[in-house]
Amino acid sequence: MASTHTFTKLRYRFIPDHVIGELLSKKWIDNAIPFLVLLCVIAIFGSLIPNFFGGANLAISARELGEFGLVCMAMMVVIIVGGIDLSVGSNFALGNFMTLALLNLGGWPVGLAIPAVVLICGGVGLLNGYLIGFLRLRAFLTTLVTLIIVRAIVDMLLLKYAQAMSVSFYQSDVWDMIGLGGVAEVPSSFIILVIVALIGHVLLTRSRPGWRMMAIGGSRRSAHNIGLSVRGMVCAAYTISGMLCGLAGVLYAARLSGAGTDTGMGLEISALTAAVLGGNSLGGGRGSVAKALIGAVIVLVMTNGVLRIGLNSGSGPMVLGLTLLLAVFIDVRWLKNRDKLLSKVYVSPTYVELPTPRSTSVETGGAFALNDRLGQVEIIGLGEVESPEDVILDDDDYLYCGTRHGDIVRFAPPDYTSWEVYAHIGGSPLGMAFDRAGDLHVCVGGMGLYKIDRARNVGKVTDETNRSAFSVVDDSRLRLADDLDIAPDGRIYFSEATIRYEMHDWPVDALESRGNGRIICYDPKSGKTHTALRNLIFPNGVCLAHDGQSVLFAESWACRVSRLWIAGPKAGQVERVLDALPGYPDNINRASDGSYWCAIMGMRSPALDLALRMPGFRRRMARRIAPDQWLYPNLNIGCVIRFNDKGEVLESLWDQGAKNHPMITSMREHRGYLYLGGITNNRIGRIRLDKADPNWSGMRSYWGQRA
Amino acid sequence: MSALVGSWLERFLGRGRAAVTVPPLDGALKPNNRLEDAPRGLASHAPDNLVACGGAVLWSSGTRLFRAAAGAEPEPVATLDGVISALAVSPRGQIAVACDGKGISILARDGTVTDTGRSSGWPSACITAMTFVDEASLVVCVGSVQTALDAWQRDLMEHRRAGELWKLDLAARTAKRLAAGLGYPNGVVVAADQSLIVSEAWDVRLVRRAPDGRELAIVLDDLPGYPGRIAASARGGYWLTVFAPRSPLIEFVLREDDYRRAMLAEVPPAYWIAPALRSGVSFHEPMQGGALKQMGILKPWAPTLSYGLVIALDTNFVPLQSLHSRAGGKRHGITSAVDIDGRLWLTAKGGDEIVAIDRAAGEVR
Lengths: 707, 365
Fold this sequence. Notes:
The complex is a heterodimer of chains A (707) and B (365).
Chain A (H helix, E strand, L loop, with lengths): L1 H13 L2 H8 L7 H17 L6 H26 L7 H18 L4 H25 L4 H29 L5 H7 L2 E2 L2 E2 H19 L1 H11 L1 H6 L4 H27 L10 H11 L11 H21 L5 H31 L32 E3 L10 E3 L5 E4 L4 E5 L7 E6 L3 E7 L5 E6 L2 E5 L5 E5 L18 E6 L5 E5 L9 H7 L4 E7 L4 E9 L2 E6 L5 E6 L4 E6 L8 E5 L4 E8 L5 E8 L2 H7 L2 H10 L6 E2 L6 E5 L5 E6 L11 E5 L2 E5 L6 E5 L9 H6 L4
Antiparallel strand pairs in A: 1-2, 3-27, 4-5, 5-6, 6-7, 8-9, 9-10, 10-11, 12-13, 13-14, 14-15, 16-17, 17-18, 18-19, 20-21, 21-23, 23-24, 25-26, 26-27
Helix pairs in contact in A: 2-15, 3-14, 4-9, 4-12, 4-13, 4-14, 5-6, 5-7, 5-12, 6-7, 6-12, 8-12, 9-10, 10-12, 13-14, 13-15, 14-15
Chain B lengths: L1 H12 L20 H4 L3 E3 L3 E7 L2 E6 L2 E6 L5 E5 L4 E6 L5 E5 L3 E5 L5 E2 L12 E8 L2 E6 L9 H6 L5 E7 L4 E9 L2 E6 L5 E5 L4 E5 L5 E6 L4 E8 L5 E8 L2 H8 L1 H10 L20 E2 L19 E6 L5 E7 L8 E7 L2 E6 L4 E6 L7
Antiparallel strand pairs in B: 1-25, 2-3, 3-4, 4-5, 6-7, 7-8, 8-9, 10-11, 11-12, 12-13, 14-15, 15-16, 16-17, 18-19, 19-21, 21-22, 23-24, 24-25
């Protein structure tokens, strides 16, 4: 038994299951299947064809890829906006012919001829774009028509000028450089492709026009409704497509210097195949330059490979067709099931072995012994506040709490019956703290760290931190800022409970019980935010120690409280303060006698403690049964404990029947009273503390007597 | 081989037998609060088996036997030497009492006690239900011959099928085993055609058996909870008590062998993930997501390990109506029901209460 436990422990320690889900949640994972196909194709043809990986072969292929890749990108651009361009082949032929004509017959310089050709082909694209975008003709029919017409024009021009062109010959170093040369074995057409691809990628993924194209492809109606100029964008896409074809035509002309009736014949089919193989969705809205290029390489390797192997003429398209069929099949299944797969594998519980909890029984006694000291609690704001996760009082005795509506509500002393919305932030306001100036800092779940100044202006303090080097999910954004405290020098330490889940998915994080959370520090002097500690198990409450040298933080699912030194000789070190708690610690706050209050939001149950040692059980549970049926930490009962710097628990206050305060998430001592908050509750409680200093307030404890 | 692969696949994908499904409370079983809201209640510690006897009701509570007439206070009748696990009343008023570990005694109307039923060879432990076929023969359900009476949860969690059905001849002092290997038979009633209707709790079904014990038919199966005792109703049908609910989590744990074994070995029974007669007593009990109190309220449809349910069946065992005490309610763990003089009497073993519901007042149709 012991050895299987050790094995399980090691397995969950060293195999990062959660990464699979995180990888699957990435958008670029869509490229995985096309990329695998690419590797297979290269492996197969590389092994069949001798000298496939030789320098000469690669150079030739790369040169061809330069042209073909551009045409594929041309196709991709229109596919993204939900269209199709069948005229790429003809347009390509036109570009090829015009280049040769302008250079050989017109005697234009290269620097002028190339832009001219790009513009001419762009003109064809513009025609397509105008007809499809503005006149709302069908993309398929329109481009079929342009395919035929442009092909006809090229044929007519060829008839007239082919003779003249074939006798003349254009001589230019630049031209030779483009057609035959390159930089250190890398052909220039390939370099051009790479440059265009990089620009295209940036435009598509990181610029407004790119996003708009994606939006239009994703849902034309919605894009129109939010005010995008759908017609103009569609027209622009076809124009860009035409220009890319023109550029490809130029490269082809430079390589072969010949124009024939079969130039670019069937290119639209290859380009379409490549685009779809690469994973660009024909429905629009899903595509990228990388996908187009992956598709281009696959198609090029296959068509050339089939030729080189020496199969008969029909087999090339046959192989291509079958591959396309397979790719489309896999792509459809992938698209359909990706989210299902993701939802199944994202939750990845890990091995947690909690120490035996301290006893809460009355018989054995001790600080945790059950009692009913919270039974006589006074109720504040019953039914008027919802989800007061944290409560805080200022020096004028006003009581503040957050609500799930995103408000900060303020109750007026002395009886706390009247209240007002102090400020509206949005999100889920959680932990709160006052700074020296009396500005209220609030951790807002789903938003970050916010501040409300004394004039009630709400401002963002920070909502991002440094991204860690090896995290798959983007952990720079704050998902669940939970509780904070402010050091004497103004630095704000706050906890982020989990980086893998949103606010309302916290139970899933409890199910995982992995170290998904962190302690983050915001320095107002530099305005910078950095992560101070990571891989904490649901870090929750944060409290500055009485001497200001360290912050205490609670790790809820680990049932422990630790100390992070922020000043003095041990700065940066972490040490354990409380361990083996019988419940899940939440917020920590100062007590008047130099000790600390800690809310225990729920209690451990033996059945769950056992399940924590069986990650497989929890994983299957997450998959097989509805979240409502999951085994949760028992949060229907709570207590408040007081402990000191030495880690001794001094007393506990219970609400045994949990009539008023199930799930206590916060408590705050103020002038002889203890105020209680709970995130699932609709009331605030307060109870008189007999032995507490009736003049003590948090504000004075932190910032001294008011001037 | 293919069967092996198939079962592995089922477990891996959670399909087929590995699918965790519980029938919904629907139709006649649609949840209501009629049991919870019913007015009258007599406090009694863990009342278990309730029978009608001469216009009054008689019930067992631990080792003691109580009696109450309508409207009257309960009075103790007898205290026996063991936990009373089942009662039965013959048409002429003989009372059979099963004491766990001791055996069956017969209390005659005149007050004489015969301990014939305690002779060797007769079932004596874990007797869950009894019924008289006639004055001289008694049909007895033995929940499990492997597990003690109070460890019924363990019997379920260990997937045991060790229940037996016996017929005792009180005149000839013989006993005959009618069936064995049953999934916790927990209730028996003689139908109009003299066949026996037996509720098999772990198989969540009612089975019709011939007087000699042959299985004739499954008359009701895939119940949403574990069936307990069954009694004839005044209108010709039956009242079926359901002492604990099924839930997806329990069904899931029943399929998770490693966890189940570890739980049985390490966790105190009161804190198991298992059906229970009462729940919410200790915070060491497992809590499920939907049972988290929100804004101070526990939703009645929250997942729960205990429940109060009694189902009215017609003569063909089609559910007609049901009375519920839902999550967070008090009247959980209904173990027996008796329908006399227009009044339905129930034992809420988990709620420590005898509940009487007036049918005349329209509380039950």
